Amino acid sequence: MLLPSDIVQLIARESEENFDNYNYIKGVLLKRFKLSPEEFRKKFLYHQKNSEKSWREFTFEISNYFQEWIDGLKIDSFEKLKNLIITDQIKRRAPFEAKYHFLDEWMRLVSPSELADKLDEYELVRSDRKYETKRKQHFNPIEKHIESNQRTVKHKPFTGTWNTRNMGYPSRN
């Protein structure tokens, strides 16, 4: 069996002393090709059964993805697992703008209460910003000054009937 070229190149860079050290080479490869917990979460959620593989193999694959996902986040109790699953559901329903806003810490958030507090704070700031923008749009001192200097014209409501002769204008009588 041949190794892919990127793995061969990675191993070839190592010194001769480390070249025969299986644990060292394994560590180098795992470090280089280790997927993040988020990648394992995606693999766990979206992995499809291949028609050539059995259901047992599929179960083994998604079990490994799940295990790597929770190991990467250091989930070691039922309470932490419960929080992770609840947090994942909240993250799926969060608006894209919030995900983008918390991009640096999004993957590390595994506490539902911490995530909820951050999302509430984000929405509060956004709603305040929207309110300020609306207030600024409604209050324009230049427009108010122009309006106050213009002559006010009061129109009487039309109480007559419309026909082709008067075209909706009140009669002069």
Automatic annotation (TrEMBL):
Protein name: SCAN box domain-containing protein
